[in-house]
Structures are given as C-alpha cells and as structure tokens.
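so i finally got all the pieces together for this one. its two components total, 581 residues if u count the protein bits. some of the lines might not be protein, just check the labels. i wanna see the whole assembly predicted at once instead of chain by chain like last time, that was a mess tbh
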Amino acid sequence: MKWAVLCIVAVLALVASVVLGPAAVPLGELLRSDIVWNLRAPRAVLAFLVGGSLGVAGAGLQALVRNPLADPFLLGLSGGAGLGAVLAIALHLPGPWVLPIAAFVGALAALVLVYRLGLVGGATLDPRILLLGGVAVGAFAAAITTAIVALADAAELRNAFLWLWGGLSTASWNAVLVVALYAPLPLAVLLAASRPLDLLALGEESAGYLGADVESVKRRVYLAASLLTAVAVAVSGVIGFVGLIVPHLARLTWGHRHRALLPAAFIGGGALLAIADTLARTAVAPRELPVGVVTALIGVPVFAFLLRRWTIA
Amino acid sequence: MLNLANVRYRYPGAPRDALTDVSISIGPGEFHAVLGPNGSGKTTLVRIALGALAPLVGRADVNGRSASQWSRRDLARQVGVVPQREDNLFPQRVRETVLLGRYPYLSLWGGERPEDHAAVDRALAACDAADLADRWVWTLSGGEYQRVRVARALAQTPSFLVLDEPGISLDLRHEMTLFELIRGLVDAQRLGVLMITHDLNLAARFADSLLLLRDGRPVASGAPADVLTQENVEAVFSWPVAMQTIDDRPQMIPLRQRPRPDHPTPSS
C-alpha cells in the first residue's frame, strides 16, 4: 500500500514536471512537442535519477557515520566539485562537457583526500574522522574557490556561483544516459550492504560479532555513496538537503531496515527533486531559481523539525 | 571447544604485556567466569578468544581452528557475543533486534525464512522474553534489555556464548534472573559459556570454573573453591575480605578498612 502511494507520487511528480513549464504546450501536442521531448522530459528523468541517488547515498552515509543528520555533501565532495568547476571556468577550458567533468574530478579528488584522512593508521576507517575530514577538506576547497572567484572576471562569477547552487537547466538525454549507466553499480553496492548497515546501527563491535565484515562494509558504503554524490554534483551542482531529509522521511514510514529503506529513499528522493525542479522552473517564470535554493527552502524547516524531534526523543 | 593455550599479547607500543601465559578451555555444557580488577586483561582475553586480536605467543582456537582464521560470518554461527556496551542508532522493536542474530544465516539478496523466525521465537522463549517481542527496545528496563541481548546471541544458534559484564548496573533480582538464565542455558542446551564479571560471589555460585587474572597473569584457575580463597582475593584486589560457604561455594565479604595486623593494608 505505502509502496503504491510512493510510486503514484513519483509518477505524478514526473508527469507534472513534463506538463508544467513556462512555455504553454497544449495537452494534445505534449507527445509531439520539441520542448517536452528535448527539454522537459530529459530534465525530469535526470532530476529523478539525481534525487534518488542522493537519497540512497544519504541513507547509507547516515548509517555509516552513525549520525542520522548527516548529508552526503558534508563529506567535502561539494567543495571539491565547486573548486573543479570554478577552476575550469577560470582557466577557460573549452568544450560542452568541461564543467561536469571538472566538477566530477574535483569531487573525486576530495573523496580520495577525505578517505585518506579517514583511514586512521592505514588500517581502519574511522567514520568520525571521515566526517571531520570532510568538513575540513570542504572548507579548504571553498577557500581556494573563493580566492579564484575573487581574482577572476566578474562576468564569469555569476555562472560559477549559480552552478554551485545546483541546477538542472543543462539537462540532456546524454546526461541522463551517463547517469543511467553510471549509477546502477554504486546503487547495487549500497543495496547489497543493506543488512550489514542494519547491524552497524548497533556499533562496529556488535556488528562484527553478529557476522558483519565491518571494515569492508564501511569502505564499500563510503565509496559507493561518495561516487553517487560525485556524479550528482557533476550533472546538477550541489543540491542540498535531499540526501538528508529523504532518508528521514522514508524512515518514518518504512522503518530503519535498509532493505526497504534504500529503495524507498531512491523513489522518494527522485520524486522530491522532480517536484523541487518543477517549482524552480515555474515559481518565478520566465526566470529560474537554482534548484538547490528550492530544496534548501523546503529542507531547512523540515530539518529544524526533525532536529527538534530527534533531540526530544 | 573454545580454547586459549599459553597466550601472550601486548598492544602495539604498550610498555608491558596485556596478557601473559593465559590458558582457558571451554567445552560444551561448561560455564567459565573470568575475574580480576580493572585493567587485568579480561577484555583482551575475550578479544583474543573471538579472533579480534591474534596472540603473539600461544594459540586461540574455536572448534580446532585458529580464532582469527574464521570469517566473521562463520564465527558468528559458532559464538554468540553479548558485548558490554552497545547503542541503537535507530529505534527498534525487540523482535527486529533479535532477528539481527540471524544475519550469519541469511543470503545476500534473500529474505528471512520461516526457520529464521522460528529461531527468533525459540531464543525469545528461552530468555523468558516472548512477551517483550513487540516492545520498543528503548522502553525496556535494564534487566529486560540484557535478556533480549542474550536472546539475540541465542538466535545465532551458537555453540558458545561470550558475555562481557552482563550483570553490571542490574538490581539484585534482575542480576540473579540473568545468572539463572545463563546457567539454565548451559545445562539445558549444553552451551559453553565464557563470562567476564566483577561479581566474584555470583561467579562462584554459578560457574563451573573460574580464572582469576592480575596484570594479565593468571593467579589461579579451576573450581571456585580452589580459586576464590581469602589469600587469592586479598592478593589480587588489595583489600581485606572474609570468606563464607553457601551451597558448597565460597562467598566473599569485603571488610571495612581498619588497620589490622594480620591483613595487608589496602594502600600497599
């Protein structure tokens, strides 16, 4: 029943993001419209894939760092991606794909750096240090980014700045294809780690005694969740709060068992981002808001509510 | 058999050994308790017995195979553990947390089978916790919570049970209930039990064999009457005690601190 409701919401969100938009397309011509096929449809599908990936990455990371208020972008990836993108703009690197590729490379560099910091003594991955290392690496990357922005031409700043706040306006079927080919592997890795993630909620020691290979699980979950976040940031910039709030809302209905939670977080995250992107396109049409602004405007009040609920419980 | 033979261990960079020449051998239907002051090596002993640490000298075997050679999954089918501390990140119901004990039997993508739920029911019943099954874990009292954690270890259908200070912070009735439960499991299911405890008297009442450690060295081991003597207890814990016997088991009564010529002073 709850799965049916979730799927209906997701389908409605996708339909709405195809039907609604600043340009009026008559309903009868929806299927033949260029605007629908080449702009709205790929954008809706991309929003769904990115939102779903962020939802699953967030759910996995929250269990990994043992903090239900963790967001995938806490781990320094957004800082690295932003630095990569701004660097590409400042250096006037040519090509249509240069921004996402540079952002992806920046995110991967941050991922490797944080992972190295998290490997205390080279043997065990310490989730607390992972979190602190992510904040530190993110701050360092943000400092360099700001320095570059300060030295670059003013005209280019707006692009970089808006890009950092996330947006799906560059969506294309090619981008959809890239994500659709890339995301299934890390998604499958996280899904396969469902049961060990349940055990990790009891603490690493107990998880090990119940039969989980804790070190390997931690590495797989961190790498898979980070790789998902990296591709999300590459195609759509930093979209905050989806990876934080979606797992929470999913837990309210599906409980904390990851075998159900992760698929629910994928569908729920996809639906949420499709809705948020539709709002971003239509709320102030013909202008467009960065979708990260919309998710933050929705997300922060929900976050405050959850924070309050969590500290009371 | 859960077997430690002449084990020596030193943590990397530590100035002295955490364990020196320690041996213990636990067979089916045997209840062994490890006693000693804080820092005497009890927890290190458990980590070595469970293969989390490998001994520098000596052997640690589970059913004839080196403890550190077992995969975590296979070991979890042989040995159930009730660690001293753990916390639940997410709220959970009792049945769910006991079901986690079935993890070493589940396939990667498959769901829980009827036999898994049957094992959970049996474990809950054995721990007198069947009526707790639908409660939230965080609503349980300390004693109920420990019974549920023992049930989770039993759901692993192990041959051995390892418990680290299970009676700590429990009141009299709940602590006695827990020890009676463990003893009953040893006798009824032929479980081999290794328990770390600070409670000398309950260990002497319930266990078949005691191992008394000081500074990582075995001071005495064997039947409670041979291990829990006034001489041994005073030497290991540096405190004057008197001894009595109940049910043929030695019981220790700590004495007030006043200077007596025939007892060592606590500060020595």
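Chain A has two domains: 1-45+240-313, 72-238.
The CA atoms of residues 195 and 285 of chain A lie 45 Å apart.
anyway lmk what u think
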